[in-house]
Amino acid sequence: MIEADGLTKRYGQTLAVDDLSFQVRPGRVTGFLGPNGAGKSTTMRMILGLDRPNSGTVRIDGQPYRSLHRPLRTVGALLDAKWVHPNRSARAHLLWLAKSNKISTRRVDEVLGLVGLSAVAGRRAGGFSLGMSQRLGIAAALLGDPRVLLFDEPVNGLDPEGILWIREFMHGLAAEGRTVFVSSHLLSEMSLTAQDLIVVGRGKLIAQSTTAEFIAQAGDNAVRVRSPHADTLRLALLDQGFEVQVDGQALVVPGASTDQVGDIAGANGVVLHELSAQAGSLEQAFMRITGDAVEYRTDAPALAADPTAAAVAAAAAADPDATIQLTHSGKK
Amino acid sequence: MTLLAVERIKLFTTRSPWWCMVLALGLTVGFALLVSANANDNFPATVEASQEGSQFGLIVMMVMAALAVTTEYRFGTIRASFQAVPNRSAVLLAKAGLVALVAGIVGEVTAFASWALVHLMHPGALTALNSGANWRHVAGSGLVYAFAALIALSVGILVRQTAGAVAILLVWVLLAENLISLVPKVGDKIQHWLPFTEANYFLTAGASAAETHSAEGVTMPLSAWGSLAYFAGIAVVLFGIAVATANRRDA
User: Fold this and answer.
1) Please, which residues bridge with residue A24 across strands?
2) Shortest CB distance from A52 goes to which of B3, B85, B250?
3) Is the ipTM of this complex over 0.90?
4) CB pairs below 8 Å between A and B: how many?
5) Does the distance separating the beta carbons of A101 and B84 come in below 8 Å?
């Protein structure tokens, strides 16, 4: 169980993580989803006590990381597979980690076998392929047989075989009752890997739900409608037996067609500013939802500082599609 | 003790410390060989002369000490270290203990090997360890190496990158402390309080003027052992600052 409460991290002027609160439950794979630069890695570093939050707390099974006794036995983490001295052998790398938490040498050989690196244990880690490095990182995370596991973008740059291996591995870990927290910017990957989702954009929590709910929210045939008379329209839609969700200034009507919503609006004399069908892909739901977070963030200081950003933000305000593009340009 | 063992594994499972140790021994003993082979009436083979190459080894061991932490920052293993042991002070203290110990041992070995070589090539009273000052000059090397390694490690922790740390250390030890005396009036006075000048005085104090090249008729402010204490104090304070900084910073 990981509980974050009001986590905030500021690097100079940049607010990397902004009042982030969430819970990660045991026995499930929880995806930590957001575009690059959304603050996922920063959050993970704060969970591990590597970065100090400006405010807020994060606890693992009720305790802050820094007060854990022999923390590798409670929390295993793979933040970056390249965090290995290139001239040290894979086995030596695990050996010093094990020693620091009084984990037996036998366990080192055990985890090497578990990730399939026994044959190359004596080779220098600098010569490893990305897939092998990832496996070594996972071996390091598993050393202390921890109840809580953190993986930051574990499938980045892996071939399909490696991705499948890691996905099944994480499912196995969760099935054993462990807490598994995996970050990714790939929604399609998360929809296959994670049972729960924590979605962030620009350091803020956007959604915390089960993956199934998140996908349902995206809706297969939803209609998004904006109107200056949103309240009138909402009541009219409810009258007709539609379900209406309020999404900022817009209304989202699942299971409706643009024809139906347009007809109801016309019958009630409601002016529409937008009437769009929501193609129900996860990527789009993700873009739309995180795009709002981007729009939210592009406020006055950014406008003043950067004319390009001002133009993009103005376009974003005028046109929701531009918001999606902004999300793209926000990916670095 | 566990953490010391961890640091030992970390240090000796990479190649650079082995290279540094071989290099330190080779350079100092090699220099002693050169001095000894070319000794004549103007430059007699003495205990002092046998230790002239000591600074080669000192610099190399300081580089090793700095590398012990800057490579951790370079390759991100410092995060793994702090993740495994969140008590950063303990991690860095163990690392300091280890590099100081290794540098100290290398200092003793190089000093005695250099002296033994010169003594074997020129047996006699001049090369014999027959005074307290002689013993201090040779056996004291290890102490100077150990505290110099602590200084180098502290600089490494503060700067966090190899090139910067090594540049600072080289300029400091080889240039800055010597060139400061070029400043008119105050230069000499400042120099006498600089740590490596003090460390050098600890080693060479009490040698007769004829036997030392640094006989400029200057009076140092502290005794020989006082100079070492001062040098050690600077190292410990610098290390304290480095640990406090590492505790405050994001890893």
Assistant:
1) A2
2) B250
3) no
4) 81
5) yes
Paired residues of A2 in beta bridges: A24, A60
Residue type, A74: T
β pairing state of A2-11 and A14-24: antiparallel
Cα gap B55→B170, rounded to integer Å: 11
Instruction: Say yes or no for a CB contact (<8 Å) between B250 and A51.
Output: yes
Residues present in chain B in total: 251
The C-alpha R_g of chain B, in whole angstroms, comes to 19
Of B116, B92, B108, the closest CA to residue B21 belongs to B108
A293: how many CB neighbours lie within 10 A of its CB? 24
Cβ neighbours of residue A110 closer than 8 Å, sequence gap 6 or more = none
* Amino acid found at A154: P
**pTM of the entire structure?**
0.80
Name which of B5, B20, B28 is nearest B65 in CA terms.
Answer: B20
Q: Give the model confidence (pLDDT) of B240-251 as tens digits.
A: 999 999 999 998
Partners of A246 in the beta sheet?
A251
Which residue in B6, B77, B84 is closest to A85 by CB distance?
A: B77
- B130 Cβ contact partners less than 8 Å away, ≥ 6 residues apart: none
Residue entry with tokens 């490696």 = A162
Residue B40 has pLDDT above 70, yes or no: yes
B59 vs B106: CA distance, rounded Å: 12
